[in-house]
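Batch queue: ligand-bound targets. Current item pairs a single chain with zinc ion. No template structures supplied; prediction is de novo from sequence plus SMILES. Inputs echoed for audit trail.
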Amino acid sequence: MNNLLRFNANTTVKHLRAALVEAGRIAYTRGLLTSNDGNLSVRLGSGDILITPSGLCKGRLAPDDILLINAAGDVLHAAGGLKPTSETPMHIEVYRRRPDARAVIHAHPPYAVALTLAGKNLRADILPEIALTLGDVPTTDFALPCSEENAAAIRALIPDHDALILRQHGVLAVGATLDHALIALERVESCAQVQVLAEMMGQVTPLPAAMLPQLHAMRRGS
Ligand SMILES: [Zn+2]
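Prediction returned. Tokens below.
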């Protein structure tokens, strides 16, 4: 069976609904979002957006739960009185700023969020996989969740980053496919977990300084 989360311009809407259900199930099972938190979306070739509903657990969605909205956020199709996620403005902001992005996942992974509660950033100089893949993962200013403030908080950062940490709230990951976005999200949380554990032991050793430019060059493919 094909990996549902990989798709291209020819992928059908039916496939993308199933892919959103599957990505939500994986993120929920991995503990990256819990309860009825988090939200996921994909952009269609038309510019319209499939997006998860408000209020339901993203680990137990059905394909028909997914809403169709346009690029302005107007609901084009919704089953059973469902409403789009209250974080819809943040998703729309990503698609406005990132023509390359076709998938957005917002989750509440505990280690990444805990770092921000402690006033710390995810360090890009301690683990090769961060330097090699995502590079710097900045933390936004605090913004009121479920409001237009989140769209404003990510505006300046999202053009240059595939993953952001939303201060005292969660993580935003984007990609060309749901697979890319989920990989970025998992990477952020895994590295945050290692950083938290190392800081609990009191000693965090950075990578050798000479290695960082090499890793950054490898990431850029230069
Ligand atoms: Zn949230």
